Amino acid sequence: MTNVQQGGRVALVTGASRGIGAAVVRLLASRGMRVVVNYRSSRDEADDVVASIRSTGGQAMAVQADVTDGAAVLGMVEQVRAAMGEVEVLVHNALIPYAIKSFDEISWDELGGKLEQEMRAAFLMTKAVVPGMTEGGYGRIVYLGTVLSRRPRAGMIALGTAKAALSQFARFVAQELGARGITVNVVAPGPVGETTIADAALDQEHQQRQAAQTALGRIASPDDVARAVAFYAGDDSGFITGTTAPVNGGLAMD
C-alpha cells in the first residue's frame, strides 16, 4: 500500500467510532492531522466517521483491532505505517467493559479482570507506537482517564481503580520517554453525556445532581473532552508531560 498524500502528523485514536473518540478524530482532522479511526466491532459507525472527515477535506482511515490483543495491535500499527507512516500521536480512548457493582457485590474476577484488561490495552498500544516515535524523535501519547480515579462514585470501583492504575502508569512512561521527545499525559473527564457505560448508568435525576455540583453548571460534552485531548496531542503542550487534565467543569478541584 502506498503512502497517502503527505500532510499533518499521523494520529491514531482507539475506540474512535463514537462518543469521545469520534469527537477527538474529527477535531484532530480539522486541525490538519491525518487520523486513524480504530474500532473493534462498529465498522459502519467507524466508516461514517471517516466519511464525515473526508467530506470536509480531511484525511482519515478506519482500522479494526481489539486493543487487548497483542497481534491485532501490532497488525493495526503496521497497517497505519504502510498507509500513512509512523504513528506520531496516540490517543488511547478505547473503553474496556467493566462491572458496575459495589465492593460488597463485585468479585475479584470482575475487579481484577478490569484492571488486567485496562493495563494490557494501554501497555500493548504504547509498546506498539513507541519505537516509531523514538526513531522520529517526536511523540504525543494521551490516555483517557476519569474523575472517578480521584472522586469515587457508588458502583464504579472497577473503573475508578483501573483508571487510577493507568494514571500512575502514564507518569512512569512519561518519565522514561521524555528524553526521546515523547510526552505522555492523561485527560480525565467527569460525566460526559451518555457516551460511556458509566454515564449511561446515570439516570436523568442523577445527571441533574451532577450538573448542580459542577461549577460550570453542566456535565461535559464529547467536544469538551476532545479539546483537552487536542491540546495534549499538539505542539502547544510540548513542555508538559506526566500530567492529568481534569475535564470536569469544576466537579472536583485539586
TrEMBL record:
Superkingdom classification of source: Bacteria
Cited Gene3D superfamilies: NAD(P)-binding Rossmann-like Domain (3.40.50.720)
SUPFAM superfamilies reported for this sequence: NAD(P)-binding Rossmann-fold domains
Record bears the keyword Oxidoreductase: yes
Gene Ontology molecular-function annotations: oxidoreductase activity
Similarity annotation: Belongs to the short-chain dehydrogenases/reductases (SDR) family.
Identification of the protein by name: 3-oxoacyl-[acyl-carrier protein] reductase
